[in-house]
Design goal:
globular; about 325 residues; about 0% strand
């Protein structure tokens, strides 16, 4: 809220203020409304239903064929890779980020559901979500999903970590060639989608040394352009890193409060799932929410996950589900 009136362009920042206020209300209303385990499971179930719907549409897109967008992929290093699916999210990276947030909740529903139909529905949603995130070819989201899986296993049963690592290694040879080759480009600096980020980071660091720009990507873009801080070939859209972007928009107070809030939430979730008397469904959904948050924060190192406000709403919805689980765990104690 403070980053709006002191923005480089408060008029441009006003629209983004409403996005953030909407997300604040989403968290407050959700956590306040959830009073029973059934309500928490219903939230996880609706999230899984949304994942199933968008995943099914992504499969339909793949069958119909998606035109290759060369602004999303280096054609020389990813020869033979098909077009990247995006479902209803306009951008494959945004779609993959939503799936990173929802897949752990689907796993939690599968393990914590009280009915066979609930587990079957969760399994179908997970299958569609897994297919869809593979077809997005979003490397940062793949890494984020692996991090989410590691956190999930650690909080659920840490004795399974060696089996998790072994299963991951055994699965690599089974991946389709296009996905395996895409993984190999993650640390290849010759990949244009990787190398193009360095001018963005340089511009962001120049701005941080001077001041901040104010709330929203629009004010930041104006500031960067007016002071000639960016010298890359592609247009400057955002800093491609959520931590840099939040810092640029809201200053030290903003980035400190953002990191502190997320870490405090994940820490509270990790403590609550160990509480005696915590119902199994609450425990699983809380673990799923914590895993989602951990995974998307890893993904945010390489991308600005709030560039699409719809992803921001899903982000804070999952955060609210996690805090609702913490609330119910404490209440059961």
């Amino acid at each position: 809220c403070l980053a709006w009136p002191v923005s480089y362009s408060s008029a441009l920042s006003l629209r983004f203020l409403f996005f953030h206020l909407t997300c604040m209300l989403c968290v407050v209303v959700t956590v306040s409304a959830v009073e029973r385990t059934e309500q928490l499971l219903r939230l996880a179930g609706m999230a899984s239903l949304a994942m199933a719907g968008t995943g099914l549409y992504a499969v339909y897109q793949r069958i119909q064929g998606v035109e290759v967008n060369y602004s999303y992929v280096d054609a020389l290093l990813n020869e033979g890779m098909p077009g990247r699916v995006y479902a209803v999210f306009d951008n494959p990276n945004a779609f993959a980020q939503v799936l990173v947030l929802l897949i752990p909740l689907g796993v939690a529903l599968l393990l914590g559901s009280r009915t066979g139909w609930g587990r079957l529905g969760a399994l179908i949603a997970l299958g569609l979500g897994a297919l869809a995130i593979g077809m997005t070819y979003a490397r940062a989201s793949w890494i984020g999903l692996v991090a989410a899986a590691a956190v999930f296993v650690f909080l659920w049963n840490r004795r399974l970590i060696p089996a998790f690592l072994l299963l991951g290694l055994l699965a690599l040879p089974l991946l389709p060639d296009t996905i395996f080759n895409r993984i190999l480009t993650i640390f290849n600096l010759k990949d244009t989608s990787t190398s193009s980020r360095f001018p963005l980071y340089e511009a962001a660091l120049r701005l941080i040394r001077v001041s901040g720009a104010g709330l929203g990507t629009a004010a930041l873009q104006d500031y960067i352009r007016d002071f000639n801080l960016y010298h890359g070939e592609a247009p400057f859209v955002h800093a491609h890193d959520i931590y840099l972007q939040v810092w640029l928009e809201t200053g030290l107070l903003g980035i400190a409060s953002f990191v502190a809030a997320l870490l405090a939430g994940i820490k509270a979730a990790a403590k609550s799932v160990k509480m005696p008397g915590c119902p199994a469904p609450v425990r699983m959904v809380t673990i799923g929410g914590a895993a989602s948050m951990a995974g998307i924060l890893v993904c945010g190192i390489a991308d600005y996950i709030w560039n699409y406000p719809r992803v921001m709403v899903v982000f804070w919805f999952v955060f609210a589900v996690m805090l609702s689980g913490v609330k119910l765990a404490k209440k059961s104690k």
